Amino acid sequence: MELKLRDVVNAIISVMVSSVLRCVYKGMDIVGSILITLMVRYPKLKDPIPPIGSKQILRESVTVIAEKIRTKELTAEEVVRTFIGRIHEINGQINSVVDERFQIAIEEAKNYDRLIETGEHDLKELQTKYPLLGVPFTIKDSFCVKGLKHTAGSYYRKDFTSVDDADVVKILKQAGAIPLGVTNVSELCMWWESVNTVYGRSKNPYDTRHIVGGSSGGEAGLQGAAGSAFGIGSDIGGSIRIPSFFCGVFGHKPTIGLVSNTGQHPPTSGRIAEFLTTGPIVRHPRDLPLLFNVMIGENRDKLKPVPDMKTIRILYMEDDGGSPFATPISDELKLTMRKTVRFFEKKYGIKAQRANISKLYHSLEIWANGMSGCNVPTFCEELVLRERKINPYWELLKFAFRLSPHTLPALILGIIEKFVYIGNKFPIHKEMIEMGYSLAKEIEVILFLKNIQN
Fold this sequence. Notes:
Blueprint: H1 2-39, H2 62-70, H3 76-94, E1 97-100, H4 102-118, H5 123-129, E2 136-140, H6 167-174, E3 178-183, E4 195-196, E5 200-201, H7 217-224, E6 230-235, H8 241-247, E7 250-251, E8 277-282, H9 287-295, E9 315-316, H10 331-348, E10 353-354, H11 363-372, H12 379-382, H13 392-400, H14 408-423, H15 427-448
Helix pairs in contact: 3-4, 7-8, 11-15, 13-14
């Protein structure tokens, strides 16, 4: 009886704490909205970007574009010039591309057209050796692209120019892809909006009064506007997935260790390197496997063959259990998920199974404690290139008078970081770290179980 009473009391306390935290969260959401309204000049009317019109190339998938170039239905130069023209049309409104190599890209396209004309390779050889021959792409400004600015949204890196390509750029070039430019990010890629004091704010192509998400937001916005055939982003806590969701495109965060992160800023090491991955952003989901197989390079041999769809298991959850630190899942999203589940069940004759992973309720705390417990330079040190450490409170005061080189989100993150590091001294920090490892193990076990309770 005593044990049951204790359980009831704990449950009541848990509900009360969650309710209080949710109220605090809602309060912060309201206050934040008011502050943004006061700080940002919000236009009253939409500023629609120009329609694609008759430019059919802009509507095509990477797969189709590459095939049409190989078969001479299109020239690489024609494709590259069309996407460059689209960037000129839209970039003034969405502010996605922050540095470009257009003339070099055109010359590279001409070289590929000459290669095809020589007949040196037949169609099969071209597809095998150059699966992305002549296809233009863009990449977020945290990656090195030789000859282009490499700021990662940092004021102190505004004059940095890359002298070499990041590994993923090299791999894509070897496959025949042509980089057009680099796209906007949040300050040091650590926020879910893409704004910085070097290039300003990127805007959503569907409604320029809205944000694109972050930190790969400039890239996702450009893809949503059909500004390049495909894009490359990176993700440490949603930086591919969030902007892809905001801009109506498809982004993939691969398993760690498959796609090289070398050539990015900020550099990562230790446990943080386990959070960061590089992945593609596209308008057509059919392009994800093609790009992923190119990007992983020699790691391709580590992958198992894709199973028959009728033999796979589909597991789903509609929410994380109602964490007060997460935005509640809307009814519209839940309905969409259910429709997707029913589609797979009907098309492939399989029964989807509802999973119940209770530890996901603490996912934000697990992630935050994992990031803060990695024994790497702090964000306040990264903000000034690890040369010293800023005082976020002093910078916040300077920001109020437009004297700080940093964005408000970066300063808020710096302040939050201080509290998080103080929290590292308490037992809860270790508990969250251990829960993270336990959660990973639980998911691994679930994936190999034959049955899950509905």
